[in-house]
Amino acid sequence: MLALTSVWTTILLAAAVALGPLATDMYLPALPSMGATLDAGTDQLQLTLSIFMAGFALAQLVCGPLADRFGRKPIMIGGFGLFALASLGCALATDIETLVLCRFLQALGGSAGPVLGRAAIRDIYTPREAARIMAILASIMALAPAIAPSLGGLLLGGFGWASIFIALGVYALIMTVVIAVGMPEPLKPANRQSLRISNLLHNYRAIGIDPSFIGYTLTNSLVFAGLFAFLSGSSFVLIEFFGVKAEYFGFYFAFVVAGYILGNLIAVRLGRRMLPDQILQRGLTVSVIGGTVMAGLALTEVFHVSAVMLPQVVFMVGVGMVLPQTMAGALANFPRMAGSASAVFGCVQMTVAALVGLLVGHLHTGTSLVMALAIAACALAALTVYRLLVQRYPAQGFEPATSATA
How many Å apart are CA 131 and CA 33, to the nearest integer? Predict the structure, then answer.
């Protein structure tokens, strides 16, 4: 068994959390090809992304409390097993309706990775330490979306789109075995919660009315929705509008992920001498700059790959700085029910992202305009929520008085 505070445990948790990004990013290059095979339109293909996010959101509300009662390990093992079976169903789908259903089942199982990975970090570390560890975890985890579209493109070219889902199922099975054998249970027996309805409602009410939790969660969700707007529209914009070859899509996507990793590394470095709030404010400013530049270029009909990719890289640097701080901040006040808090956090995050993704798919006009406007709007909304809530209600352990001088 690994030590809970070892770097290998952090890597293992990153690999578990990465199942979600893999499931969303790996098949992006195949969307146009899948549309031709399954006789499905852009809006129906966008639904396979949005239904996955919706399933993620709903399932977390169940697996969070279960993990608070029975521990993180058994719920992760069961969830990844379901994900593997659903991935096989996706690979065998012959119509868009079956694919949408199996994507929903994928989400139900795969949600265990992110929600319980976040909860485990909160189990192991203090709030301030958790912000730094989550930034490190995010940097490791970002390797998955960096290589996922390229790997998906290679599998698509060599074996067809069904092979992408088979690969995802194999990954989930490997993670199931590794977690069962190698990861200790991070939840302390004293922190286990009852599954009585009254207790669950009390916990969710305490979480839902906490202004600090609301502020960090909405800030995170809006920035993440901007990222999801790009995920939802990028394959159609780059492949269909700009004519990028599907097998090269992953290389373009890797630049975006590199921006995210850079933001994570900046957050880790700044975390040694700055408050999480200071890092968060800088990250939001960077994201707003990237989003508004992309929207401005699209509004003036500057339609070129660089007019999308360069601003998106800037946006992602900001996202890499924002997400770890807001994740740690949202869970900071709830050490005894981190699973439930992580569940509500993830539910809100995925719901907002799914709605934005549906909007981008529904309003898509064949250019980059709708996607760019959605990214800019999400960044500006996140900055607004930060100023209205996060600055007024900092999380426990994030207050300036408890910090070393910057």
Answer: 40
The two three-digit tokens of residue 363, written as one number: 């309003």
How distant, in Å, are the alpha carbons of 107, 232, 381 from that of 120?
A: 20, 29, 29
Distance in angstroms (rounded) separating the CA atoms of residues 9 and 17:
12
**43 has a pLDDT exceeding 50:** yes
Cβ atoms of 9 and 216 closer than 8 Å: no
Q: Which two tokens stand for residue 73?
A: 């390990």
Rounded to two decimals, what is the model's pTM? 0.71
Q: Which two tokens stand for residue 29?
A: 């290059």
Structure tokens of 138? 């995010």
Domains of the chain: 7-182+194-395 (1.20.1250.20)
In this structure, which amino acid lies at residue 332? A
Q: What is the pLDDT of residue 148?
A: 79
Q: Quote the DSSP letter at residue 240.
A: I
For the cut 60, the answer to whether the pLDDT of residue 69 exceeds it is: yes
Cβ(297)–Cβ(307) below 8 Å: yes
Largest Cα span, the chain = 60
